[in-house]
Every structure is written in structure tokens, then in C-alpha cells.
Design goal:
Elements: E1 3-10, E2 17-22, E3 25-30, E4 40-50, E5 53-58, H1 77-88, H2 93-109, E6 112-120, H3 127-138, E7 144-150, H4 161-171, E8 175-176, H5 186-203, E9 206-211, H6 221-232, E10 238-242, H7 251-264, E11 267-270, H8 272-278, H9 294-299, E12 304-306, H10 323-334, H11 339-344, H12 351-356, E13 372-375, H13 380-385, E14 390-395, E15 398-402
Parallel strand pairs: 1-4, 5-6, 6-7, 7-8, 8-9, 9-10, 10-11, 11-12
Antiparallel strand pairs: 1-2, 2-3, 4-13, 13-14, 14-15
Helix pairs in contact: 2-3, 4-5, 5-6, 6-7
């Protein structure tokens, strides 16, 4: 199907543009295009068009399990891990597959077309991993799913942790993970990162590490990960997720660390909603926000993207998969509220996230696959501020989600 999208604003552009799509690719991007025979015409009415949203950090294997078998009453990361460990005992293939698909459908309704999910592999049967690998293939035409082998209870600190990670790599995951701050000792932390880097290189995989997701300023897994990435020359393929301990680092240490981070080329993912919920739980007052230094990293030219992290599970009792909520909260939490920062913040869940996922063929430009979304707003500021819905999502020129503009009327 060939398609002509009329009168839209691409990525906050002041001028209206038309988009011609042929054979699933962007063919022309310019104003005043005339319809050709056989084209389907869509009038955008001056609305905003963006590349599709990218969820760069979520846990689909645990999605929609909040309250099973109990709620996380303390709101801490560590009780969440305990609750999930209990729920994991009743995990089945069908259960994991059904919940993950339901969560992905929710995400798709909010304009998401790319998802990186962490899947717990501290399960001798690797039940959830098998379900998510199959699901990845089933939905490949509409949603790109990347899978991270995530050792929730550690690599060195969990029985046969190394063997389970290797099995996951052999089964065909996209990324190798680690959780250095949860390992029993500092020595185990370093050893786990060394092993993860070696495994990723052996299987030619990306890396995404839950790194220093803790309020402890002595948690220093990030410097190890960055050094290993620098030495191996793989920084652009490596992501440090969370890094909430950075919020507690003293400035003298952070400034020294920043040099290494820039040299390494690491990507970062912040999860503002869940990080502010889980972190600072041991504080009275002053009480830390518990979010990594997004503004400082961004200003230093380091790539940062945002993620939802959890959707109704032991770590987050709420969450819908709507990345607009994540950006909205993240801007306030990180105090990135200048006009330009607000207008450009969509990049945290589009272009920046594309770098995190190491994507090619992404973005609205001639020759790329025609993947894009349309929002009921003239620009990102209004879309973000007023919660404008996604009216349409197209994948290779085929519409995979549609909605109608909301009608509101004040009676005075």
C-alpha cells in the first residue's frame, strides 16, 4: 500500500510537511505533494509526527503480577526482589507469554514499536526466557523486541549463575546483563562484570547492565563497567541502566568518573518513575530523589534514554507502558525544565533510545522504513503538557494502531 500523509509537523518543525510512503519506505518529505493514483490519503491536520517510541528498559516477564503472591509493602528494591523470587516459583510458559503480550499491546497503544526487555535468568528452567524468545518472533512484523539475559539474583552469587547466563546466550538473547550491586561482595561484583563482558564478546551481543541501582555512594560498579567497555572498544554497544548511586556520589568523584564515562562511550538508561519510587527509602530528611545525573550526563554529550522499567509488578504497583508519563516525570525530577529541554525531551524515548538499542533504519528520512506515530498536538510541548494521545502508529507504512481525537467541551 502506498500512502500520502498530508499537513503534518515532523519533530516540532514549524512548517507543514507531506510524507509520501512507497513500498513501506519513506519516499518523499516535502510540502505541497499531489496525490498519485492508488495512494491512500491521510490529512494530519497540522499534528505532530515523530519516529515511534522506544521502550529502552522494561521487565515484561514480571509485568502484571502486582500483588502476586503479596504486595511490596516497604516499596524497596530488595523486597521487590524477594516477592518476585516467590512468584517465580509458580511461573509457567503460558503465564509469562500471556502477560508479556498483554503488556506489549498496552505499549503499542501508546506509540511504542521497539522494546528492550530484561528477562530474569536466575531460574534453572529459564521458563520466562523461552516464552519471550518465542514471543519475539511472533510479533516481529509489528514490534521489535530485544531480550536481555538478566541475572536478577546475581551471576556469582546465584547457584550456577554463569552456566545459566551462557545457556541464555546460546538460546539467542540480544543482550547480556549483570547486577553488580546485588552480588555478595565487591570481588563478586567485579568478577560478574568481567564475565558478562567476556560472554557478550564471545557471542557478539550487546550489553545492558543493572548498574549501581542503590543509594549507597560506595557502589562503584559503573567505573568497572566503563573501564572494561573502554578497554574492549565496545562502549557504544554497552548500556548502564539505573546508576542511581550516582545521585549520591560526591562531586569530586563524579567529575573524575565523568572523564572515564565520556571516553568509554557508554549509553545510559534512567527510569525516573520507578527510581524515585524505590530509592531514598532508607532516608529520613534530607530525602534523595534517587535518579541518576541525567542533566549532567546529557550536557556532557553522553547518550541517555528513559524507560518505564516496571508495569504493575513487585517493584511498581502502577505503570501502563505510557512513555509520556516517564518523560513528564523525568523532566521535573531532573529539573530539566527550560523551553529547549522540554521541546527536545521526546528524544529520550526516540533518537537517544535508538542509540541505546543500537538500531539502524530508524527515523523519519527518505529511504528508511516508514515507521512513525502521529499525536493529537501541534508540537511536543503541547503533547507532553496536555497528555495528547497517539492517534496512529504505522509500521512499514501499515497502520498498526488507531484512535480518534478526543472531544472535550467546557460548559461555562
Amino acid at each position: 500500500m502506498n500512502l500520502l500523509i498530508k499537513n503534518v509537523r515532523i519533530e516540532n518543525a514549524p512548517q507543514l510537511t507531506d510524507i509520501r510512503i512507497k513500498d513501506g519506505k519513506f519516499a518523499q518529505l516535502e510540502g505541497g505533494l499531489e496525490a498519485q493514483a492508488g495512494e491512500q490519503i491521510v490529512d494530519g491536520g497540522g499534528r505532530l509526527v515523530l519516529p515511534p517510541y522506544i521502550e529502552s528498559h522494561v521487565h515484561l516477564d514480571s509485568a502484571l503480577t502486582s500483588g502476586q503472591p503479596r504486595y511490596n509493602e516497604s516499596g524497596t528494591l530488595f523486597e521487590g526482589i524477594e516477592v518476585w523470587s516467590e512468584r517465580k516459583k509458580s511461573l509457567t510458559y503460558a503465564d509469562a507469554h500471556e502477560r508479556a503480550l498483554a503488556a506489549i499491546r498496552q505499549q503499542a497503544s501508546f506509540g511504542v514499536q521497539y522494546v528492550r526487555t530484561h528477562v530474569d535468568v536466575t531460574d534453572p528452567e529459564l521458563t520466562a526466557l523461552r516464552a519471550l524468545i518465542d514471543l519475539r518472533e511472533e510479533i516481529a512484523d509489528t514490534i521489535t523486541l530485544q531480550i536481555v539475559a538478566f541475572p536478577q539474583e546475581g551471576i556469582e552469587s546465584f547457584p550456577n549463575g554463569r552456566q545459566l547466563m551462557r545457556r541464555a546466550a546460546q538460546m539467542g538473547v540480544n543482550c547480556i546483563g549483570a547486577i553488580p550491586h546485588f552480588e555478595f561482595t565487591r570481588e563478586y561484583s567485579v568478577s560478574s562484570l568481567n564475565y558478562a563482558v567476556e560472554l557478550a564478546q564471545e557471542f557478539d551481543l550487546l550489553m545492558d547492565v543493572h548498574c549501581d541501582e542503590i543509594d549507597d555512594e560506595a557502589s562503584r560498579g559503573l567505573e568497572t563497567l566503563a573501564t572494561r567497555a573502554l578497554e574492549a572498544g565496545i562502549g557504544e554497544r554497552v548500556t548502564a541502566s539505573h546508576t542511581t548511586a550516582m545521585h549520591s556520589y560526591n562531586n569530586a568523584y563524579f567529575i573524575r568518573l565523568l572523564r572515564l564515562l565520556k571516553l568509554s562511550g557508554l549509553n545510559f538508561v534512567s527510569n525516573p518513575l520507578v527510581n524515585t519510587h524505590l530509592q531514598g527509602r532508607m532516608d529520613t530528611y534530607p530525602k534523595r530523589r534517587g535518579v541518576t545525573r541525567v542533566k549532567e550526563l546529557t550536557d556532557a554529550g553522553i547518550n541517555v534514554s528513559f524507560g518505564q522499567d516496571d508495569i504493575e509488578d513487585p517493584w511498581n504497583p502502577m505503570g501502563t507502558g505510557n512513555l509520556r508519563d516517564v518523560v513528564f516525570n523525568g523532566l521535573y525530577t531532573t529539573q530539566m525544565m527550560s523551553r529547549s529541554e522540554i521541546l527536545n525531551s521526546y528524544k529520550f524515548i526516540t533518537h537517544n533510545a535508538a542509540r541505546t538499542l543500537h538500531l539502524s533504519d530508524y527515523g523519519i528520512q527518505v529511504g528508511n522504513s516508514a515507521n512513525f506515530i502521529m499525536l493529537d498536538a501541534p508540537d511536543w510541548f503541547h503533547a507532553l503538557s496536555f497528555g495528547a494521545p497517539v492517534l496512529g502508529s504505522w509500521r512499514a507504512g501499515k497502520q498498526i494502531y488507531s484512535a480518534t481525537p478526543s472531544q472535550r467541551e467546557v460548559k461555562f
